[in-house]
UniProtKB/TrEMBL annotation:
Keyword Cell membrane among UniProt keywords: yes
Mechanosensitive ion channel transmembrane helices 2/3 domain location: 135-174
Domain Mechanosensitive ion channel MscS C-terminal: 248-333
Gene Ontology MF terms: mechanosensitive monoatomic ion channel activity
Record-annotated Mechanosensitive ion channel MscS domain positions: 175-242
Matches recorded under InterPro entries: LSM_dom_sf, MS_channel_1st, MS_channel_C, MscS_beta-dom_sf, MscS_channel_2nd, MscS_channel_C_sf, MscS_channel_TM-2
GO cellular component, one term: plasma membrane
Record's bilayer topology term: Multi-pass membrane protein
Gene3D superfamilies associated with the record: 1.10.287.1260, 2.30.30.60, 3.30.70.100
The protein's name in its UniProt record: Mechanosensitive ion channel protein MscS
Length: 373
């Protein structure tokens, strides 16, 4: 052991200076971070933006080990060091800052993913997870490559190898990737979400699960329908969950022998009925056409709610009141009729099954005389 080095007074003074500056720097950095974090948290309470909340949480999760490393690097700047130590310190500064920035960004991504599930809205959890994982992979990959480049490692060949490998993998699993990107498209564009009632082709049901490759739909008849995400996006899809109002058109007919003044009163009757109902807004009611066996009316009204059961209850009430009102007016609903006109000749003899044929009068008189003979 070299006791001359150990007993060097200058060495111990430098060590004491480094230790003192490290402790003071650490306490100052920690205090500054605490003050900034508390102010950001106070600002987030009165702000509707989630950025301030995420920023506060990011600073609160700063690594204490990295703070100590930064404090030590600051302390080493105070004393005189050899040139090779200066070079090592410059790399140390970059590595510590790169790790801390990567940790902050990773925390921001995780907080963003948590905020998407905290607002009570139904979302695509698979898409959110995929996007979060991809962003975090990019963050840590960029951090690693930047550290290697700072240390003097040639990363050009490494980046080229990653690119070639990525292309080879993409070609091998292109069908799976098409469904994955379709899932990402569903998550970003949000044509439908879990719980929505959709209709496409011959399929009608509620979205039950949006997966990495497929979407599962619970049909009205009870079975589960599984559809590939890429194929699903190629369909023309009707999303009834997002329907705010419902336009209803229905027709009915009255008989041809109805007087014209009564026909005019029918439209007014329909308007009074619809105006008296909740969640229904009258649009129009017109005598539309002269159809076979009836005078046809067309009625249009707007349901102010999208619930199908509410619409059916309203339509039933309209039908019942219309039935009573038409009868009170002395008007009859039309039903299919057919008139046959017989010209010339004589009617053919009609027989009905189970009913005895009427006998001629001469035969009836002979039958009455037989008992007396």
């Amino acid at each position: 052991m070299n006791w001359d080095v150990m007993l060097n007074e200058r060495l111990w003074i430098n060590i004491a200076i480094i230790a003192g500056v490290t402790i003071v720097s650490y306490l100052i950095l920690q205090a500054v971070l605490r003050i900034i974090t508390n102010r950001l948290r106070k600002m987030s309470k009165g702000s509707k933006s989630g950025f301030v909340t995420i920023a506060a949480e990011m600073l609160s999760r700063t690594s204490h080990l990295l703070l100590i490393a930064l404090s030590l690097l600051i302390a080493l700047k105070v004393v005189e060091l050899p040139d090779r130590w200066e070079s090592a310190m410059s790399h140390g500064w970059f590595i510590a800052l790169a790790f801390q920035i990567a940790l902050w960004m990773d925390t921001a991504v995780r907080l963003w993913m948590e905020s998407l599930t905290r607002d009570g809205k139904a979302r695509n959890p698979v898409t959110t997870t995929i996007i979060g994982i991809m962003i975090r992979i990019v963050i840590w990959t960029m951090m690693l490559l930047s550290i290697l480049a700072n240390l003097g490692v040639d990363i050009t060949a490494m980046v080229a190898s990653l690119g070639v490998g990525g292309i080879a993998i993409a070609l091998a699993v292109q069908t799976l990737l098409s469904d994955i990107f379709a899932s990402l498209s569903i998550g970003v564009d949000k044509p439908f979400e879990i719980g929505d009632f959709v209709v496409f082709g011959s399929v009608a049901g509620n979205i039950e699960h949006i997966g990495l490759k497929t979407t599962r739909i619970r049909a009205l008849s009870g079975e589960q329908i599984v559809c590939a995400n890429a194929d699903l996006l190629k369909q023309i899809l009707h999303n009834y969950k997002r329907m705010n109002t419902r336009r209803i058109v229905f027709k009915f007919g009255i008989t041809y022998n109805t007087p014209s003044d009564k026909v005019r009163e029918v439209s007014a009757l329909v308007r009074r009925i619809i105006d008296g109902l909740d969640n229904a807004k009258f649009d129009r009611a017109h005598f539309l056409a002269f159809d076979d066996s009836q005078l046809t009316f067309e009625v249009v009204y707007i349901m102010q709610v999208s619930d199908y059961n509410a619409y059916m209850d309203t339509q039933q009430e309209i039908n019942l009141q219309l039935l009573d009102g038409i009868r009170e007016m002395g008007v009859q609903f039309a039903f299919p009729t057919r008139s046959v006109e017989f010209i010339g000749g004589s009617f053919p003899e009609l027989t009905v099954a189970g009913v005895p044929k009427e006998k001629p009068a001469a035969n009836q008189e002979a039958e009455r005389a037989l008992p007396n003979a």
